[in-house]
């Protein structure tokens, strides 16, 4: 059991789980727009997500404690390095147009962790995008929306129409809501200078905001030119599931409540779609 627990913790801490969520949302986009399964895009997104998330999460630790890294962190670094190699392999299979698009999001990820701007723009000493007051949740939602909606469609030369734009807005809103249980959990740790949503409006108002965003997320579906009688009920089920997790989220939540269950909802969404189709 101890070995399984360590493997599971590595699965979470090395960002495999969150990468599967990004992978799932990307595949959902292909399904929604009737684009065939695209191996190179999906696996690029998966390995890039692991590489990017681990870079952001562990850059500071590795930078200042590189001589005394624990075996756990060394394992994450080695794993991330191989994921980076796979990311490069699948990236080279993509079109130059897609790579230019990826470059923009790669730059955002890099600047999210690396100090690069004048001190006067920040409320702490880190000087990176992550430290700008109130920006974090919206930046993550923007990147997820861009990567999981536009990237696979650009690679497949799909025309960016009104339905695509609505889907991108839905995805942005979805990620905002999925982030709220994390924001509530992190009230114990986050500096007040970060001005996260729960810090600014409180836990109760954060949940109300999340409920309203979920309503927007679901009803945007009916503004699309094509409404699918299979996908829409599944979308409703996922919306209700997110709602339940949001309502029951709290500051002192279980270790895996957000990092496994909430973050796993896009994976469940994909599984339901694959079963239905």
TrEMBL record:
TM spans (from-to): 7-29, 41-60, 72-92, 98-117, 137-154, 166-184, 205-223, 229-248, 260-276
Source domain of life: Bacteria
Keywords: Membrane, Transmembrane, Transmembrane helix
Entry protein name: UbiA prenyltransferase family protein
Source organism (scientific name): Flaviramulus basaltis
The organism's taxonomic lineage, starting at the top: Bacteria, Pseudomonadati, Bacteroidota, Flavobacteriia, Flavobacteriales
